[in-house]
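Comment thread on ticket #2218

A.B. wrote:
> Attaching the input chain for the structure job we discussed in standup.
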Amino acid sequence: MKIVRRIIIAIVAIGLVFGAGYYKYINTITYYNDANTNGNTIGNLYGNGLFCETDGVVYFANPNDYNRLYKMNPDESDIEIVANDSVYFLNADSHYLYYSRQHNRDNSQFGFLNVNVNSLCRMTKKNKEVKILDEADCSTCALAGNNVLYIRYLAEEGTTLNSIKIDGTEGQQLSKLPIDPRCVVGEKLYFSGIENDHNLHSMNIYTKDNTYVSAENLWLPIIEKGVLYFMDLDNHKRVYRMSLSGGEKYGLTTYPIQHYNISGNFLFYQSLKGNPDGLYRVDMQSGAEELLAEGQFNNINVTSKYVYFADYFSGATYHCPLTGRNVTLFDPPIQQLKN
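C.D. wrote:
> Ran it. Output below, let me know if you need it in another format.
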């Protein structure tokens, strides 16, 4: 019996050692993406990336819980806390979530030590392990293939555009200017000029070469399926669209805009000097436009089922079915993270 017991103990010990080694090995593997992979819609990232739908799951910053990371189904069922991190600029691929920490308020991870509270992070979906990609003060970020483009602030450098691979290597500065990284298509970045003009430019994120794309005087470009949407600075800040390759442009909104987002055939925008001001929806096929909610709103995010937007003054988040008119308060529960 003693021999049998020793054999069993030896087998268990070997199994534990092998299991620990395998777990450590698995956690060192990085799963890479196709070059055309992007982590969220451009419009959602303009809305601070507070919602991100991927593989049938919506990850979101819970407005009732310090913007901590939660997830739910697109129909808002099965809400569940994911992490104590306060997040914004959510991005996702098949294996990871990417985000900037938003001060990590209250008892969030590391927040009580005031360490890495604004860092750029990658979280493995399966085991929720967090890898710090950049410990500096980071904000706006967007996934571009196997790179994350992001804005970073350092006292000695100021605010700059940077990139880093999703495995945390090959970090580099792309521009000394704070170029907006959110309008990324595949691995190509499009942006409105911020120094000498407000025309549309593109950047090769590997060579850092810039290309002049359009002479339109624009802001907040969104590119979908070869179509360019933009705030036209020469036409009272209304939203226009045109082919990315050029040609005639068409106005889409009645009023000037402050923020906007696109979902399929619908455009949602916060009016500027509207009659009245509020959150409007435009059917881009018929041209029909309707007021969904009167007031001042920002952080417009869309999923496959809902449009979400926040009251500018109170911070309360509202939601409405993409094709409906029933605007109600989005009031997700607060949950404690289980160890």
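A.B. wrote:
> Thanks. Noting for the ticket: The first strand starts at residue 51 and ends at 54.
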